[in-house]
Amino acid sequence: VQLVESGGGLVQPGGSLRLSCAASGFTFSSYVMSWYRQAPGKERELVAVISSVGDSTNYADSVKGRFTISRDNAKSTVYLQMNSLKPDDTAVYYCTVFVWKAYWGQGTQVTVSS
After folding, report:
1. CA dist., res. 97 & res. 101, Å (int)
2. Nearest by Cα to 39 from 105, 111, 114, 113
3. Closest by alpha carbon to 34, among 75, 66, 65, 3?
4. Cα–Cα distances in Å, from 11 out to 15, 30, 39, 44, 113?
5. pLDDT, block means (10 residues), the chain with 114 residues
6. Phi-psi category of 76—alpha, beta or left, where left has phi over 0 and alpha has psi -120 to 50?
7. CA distance 113 to 14
């Protein structure tokens, strides 16, 4: 199993970013995918979850209405569209999948600052 995140960077408050996570090594279309984040000095927290076929999603209260998780099973890729970003969204963002055990990508840094 391999998960490779990309798309992070520095953005001003109110801005947008789109994260991508390219997956390989398992049957992507059969598994729930999730995005987590970890801010400095804080525990890792669940941000968003999407069902295997993409018809069901769930979000942390802190990102509802601002973030959208989606997936393209043909490309084995899951996305996180982040709008109206706030400084509190600053964190390393990870995609994850549970295939007998939890697998994590290397993470991508998102920094929201003016």
Report:
1. 8
2. 111
3. 3
4. 6, 34, 16, 21, 6
5. 97 98 97 97 97 97 98 98 97 95 96 96
6. left
7. 10
